[in-house]
Write a structure and sequence with these properties.
Blueprint: H1 7-10, E1 24-32, H2 36-47, E2 52-55, E3 71-72, H3 80-87, H4 89-96, H5 101-112, E4 120-127, H6 130-145, E5 151-155, H7 156-162, E6 170-179, H8 182-195, E7 199-201, E8 206-210, E9 215-219, E10 223-231, H9 243-246, E11 250-259, H10 264-270, E12 276-279, E13 285-289, E14 295-303, H11 311-322, E15 331-341, E16 348-353, E17 356-360, H12 366-381, H13 386-392, H14 402-423
Parallel strand pairs: 1-2, 1-10, 2-7, 4-12, 10-17
Antiparallel strand pairs: 3-6, 4-6, 5-6, 8-9, 9-10, 11-14, 11-15, 12-13, 13-14, 16-17
């Protein structure tokens, strides 16, 4: 399988392809999945001297890591006050101390390995009503208490200076966020792993795993014998490979378009500071400019990961509601991709066996949380599991309705929250 057609695939940096596994090999750590979770884990581990093999069923960055909106968003899909209410002050304090670390890791990777991925600083959370604006004020206070001093509240006039739209009553600018070309980040991280001696195999899906000492991971053409295994496939992990992971999560689809290149004047008029933007709705919209002045716009969720028949029909009304002045805009690329949702909207980290780990379900905050996950698993294998275990202590709950009804029941729940957003309550 090749990268699906998208703006990212069309503008990917030139890169050397990775071989397919065709023999039996040994290693310290075998990672299943070549997205950001797997790549971050492999890079931290190879930097620490581990012999790492990464198996990717398609190509590096094939899944959500190479298809997402490219926004570097801090924290988690549930903010710290919710985490404290649900899981207690100790978990909240530990997770709060890490909620800006993923973005710092990304910037460090870009700088250390000179990864050309169009990184630009600054992201805005945009409020569509007074209730959402109140939440952003509280978020600013909370995030500042955990050390983020690069936050600015924007009133409606401030928002219109940053975004040429009259939709928003205000916003919160986070200069520790930003945006980038995610596929090029993934490809650059893979090259860094190569530099440290890590072995990556594409078109090498894991077909079976036999747990033990060592673990044995089979592919169609070979086998890996490994002391440790890390499952990092997220929404693209074959459900039958490890049913314990698929039973408490759900793949969901999101859709993105890019416009044809805009004039430099129009691009600057839409987003003068070149910040990325996401609104505060439950089913949120997000947008930004690319390096070649296209408007990238995404939004909506399709539960159960179906590919929509007409992405333009889904996204164009959203885009024009934000930017009615772009009535004649033409699209150059459109695509969909899946992310992995959990019932709690919190990432799921844990152990399946003493020497088998998993990290999945970032629920829409995958760009940053996956990079943090790689650092935590490296700490764990080196003997310090405190931070990993803070995530692992969070209960992993099944979706109501079981395999048959979890998609429609989740969609009904989402429709209720979407109605609340429209009513501003």
């Amino acid at each position: 399988m090749k990268h699906p057609e998208s703006y990212y695939a069309a503008t990917a940096n030139h890169h050397q392809r990775w071989p397919q596994l065709t023999e039996s090999i040994q290693c310290d750590v075998c990672i299943i999945g070549g997205g950001f979770t797997g790549l971050s884990s492999a890079l931290f581990l190879t930097e620490a001297g581990y012999d790492v093999v990464l198996l990717e069923a398609a190509q590096i960055g094939f899944g959500a890591s190479g298809r997402n909106g490219g926004q570097v968003v801090n924290s988690y899909s549930r903010d710290i006050e919710v985490i404290q209410q649900r899981y207690g002050p100790n978990v909240a304090k530990m997770l709060g101390s890490m909620m800006f670390e993923g973005a710092d890791i990304i910037r460090d990777r870009i700088d250390r390995y000179a990864i050309d991925c169009d990184y630009r600083p600054g992201g805005i959370f945009a409020a569509l009503n007074a209730r959402q604006m109140g939440h952003l004020r509280a978020q600013k206070t909370l995030w500042e208490s955990y050390g983020n001093r690069e936050l600015t509240l924007l009133d409606s006039a401030g928002m219109q200076r940053e975004v040429a739209s009259e939709r928003y009553v205000g916003g919160l600018l986070d200069r520790r966020g930003g945006h980038l070309h995610p596929l090029n980040l993934a490809l650059g991280e893979a090259e860094a792993i190569r530099r440290h001696g890590g072995r990556i195999y594409e078109q090498s899906a894991a077909t079976a795993v036999a747990y033990g000492s060592p673990n044995r991971i089979k592919t169609a053409g070979g086998e890996v014998s490994a002391k440790f295994v890390i499952f990092a496939g997220n929404a693209y992990l074959a459900p039958q490979l490890e049913p314990r992971l698929s039973s408490k999560s759900m793949p969901c689809g999101s859709q993105i378009i890019t416009s044809e290149p805009l004039s430099a004047e129009l691009a600057r008029a839409l987003l003068p500071s070149n910040y990325c933007v996401e609104d505060c709705n439950y089913l949120l919209d997000y947008f930004r400019l690319t390096a070649d002045n296209r408007l990238l716009y995404g939004g909506g969720v399709i539960y159960g990961a179906r590919d929509p028949q007409d992405i333009d029909a889904l996204i164009r009304p959203k885009l024009l509601k934000t930017f009615p002045q772009l009535g004649n805009i033409k699209f150059s690329h459109r695509w969909s991709g899946n992310f992995l949702l959990t019932l709690s909207r919190m990432p799921q980290f844990g152990r399946l066996e003493n020497n088998v780990y998993y990290m999945q379900g970032d629920s829409g905050h995958g760009v940053t949380c996956t990079h943090l996950a790689g650092k935590l698993i490296a700490e764990t294998l080196r003997g310090d599991a405190e931070r990993f275990d803070a995530f692992a202590s969070i209960p992993h709950l099944p979706f109501p309705g079981g395999r048959r009804f979890k998609v429609p029941l989740t969609a009904i729940g989402a429709a209720w929250y979407a109605l609340r957003d429209r009513l501003g309550v």
